[in-house]
Amino acid sequence: MTVILPQGKFDGYARNGLAGLAPDDELTRIGPGTPCGEYLRRYWMPIALTSMVQDLPLRLRRMGEDLVLYRDRSGALGLLHLLCAHRNASLEFGIVEEHGIRCCYHGWLFGNDGTILETPGEPKTSQICNRLTQGAYPLVEYKGIVFAYFGPVAEMPAFPVFDTMELPDDTMAPFLIPSPVNWVQVFENSIDPYHVTFLHTRVSGVQFQENLVNLPVVDYHERAAGNGVFYTSTRRVDDLVWLRVHDHMLPNFSQNGGMHVEGNDSTYFVRTGLTRWVVPVDDTNTITIAWRHFNAETDPHSKGRPDLCGFNSVDFYGQTDGRSYEQRQRSPGDYEVWVSQGPVTVHAREHLAATDAGVALYRRRLRRAIRAMAAGGTPQQPTAGVTNPIPTYGGDTVLRAPLRSNDDRKWMSDLSRRVADIYRSGDTLLGTERIAAIRAGLAALEGELQ
Hints:
Elements: H1 25-28, H2 35-40, E1 44-49, E2 58-62, E3 65-71, E4 77-81, E5 95-97, E6 100-102, E7 109-110, E8 116-118, H3 128-131, E9 139-142, E10 145-149, E11 171-179, H4 183-187, H5 194-202, E12 217-222, E13 229-237, E14 240-249, E15 253-256, E16 267-271, E17 274-282, E18 285-294, H6 325-330, H7 334-339, H8 357-374, E19 395-400, H9 409-424, H10 431-449
Antiparallel strand pairs: 1-10, 2-3, 3-4, 5-6, 6-7, 7-8, 9-10, 11-18, 12-13, 13-14, 14-15, 14-19, 15-17, 16-19, 17-18
């Protein structure tokens, strides 16, 4: 019997050295006192769905901290360090009262701001209530989501209200998806537009819109206030040009186009289908917490299912661990991609290419922001230098533009920059006035393209 040895590179053994490379701690470690953790703590973070807060205290872990979230009997929310300041009993077994929560062990009563209101077993002369506090964080409850601020109270920024949080005739359905991996690899998925063509269309079959099969021309545009970017993914669809627009703001906020917009009808400045944050639970666990938007423009054929949005559930493909392993292998989605990288992906093992320009851009900006704060700087807030509510750009524009001889990737890139300028021209306007002005500018541009 003749044995024919295989021919080829087979360099597995040579690449074994990569296994010893370490994660990028500067970007991925988020506990108290870490550079990234301190940076993230200067922003409001969504931490839970309102629906998760029932009559009993809710134990949860966010930003590497063990916490208890509850609603007292007056209706106010509280977020305290999990372990009682007295003897470390867990407040998940505390008794919710009219104003605050009482530790079951010795009856100490804590106000929602961490003030110790009662120490019933102590002498009347005790100064414990004046001397100690229970760790607590400020909260804002907004349209079904609970937000917390984990930083120094003296540096607490204004709560950011984005324009897509106040759209007319829009139903917002909150959802929360846990993932057993580091927050950065989940969030980077949102600034990688090329994966949409491959993961969601060409490789595993059409998971969203069929017209996403065309490779886009991608351009990154600065926000006028300098506190983030929005990017355009521009595709030709017959005699139309579809510009899909995503918002991306430090440290962990993004918005993308409508989940059911198909790019086959002329439309101007249709708003986002998804407003999202990616929040660390700890270094190896993450939550994606967001609103799905449902309205006649982002969902013209009523394909959306707000009833499917909630804890570990949402109405679009491949976001949770809810499918069988075989299904996930046959048609992997976003969840499979970011979880399969491991608990904390190792950037040093990657080989970034041209299609990773957005990922590289995000990592540079995040690293620069972390280092700037560590050097004594103040992180730029999304509320800085803009109107209230904060103008955003995420959504879809489709322009009728017959195919011509100079219709190439440069032409589409130039077109996207003209569209970006029209979007930014409405930054000082509010509400329906802003939408109308931007749409008028896009209609005039479409007229030029005929």
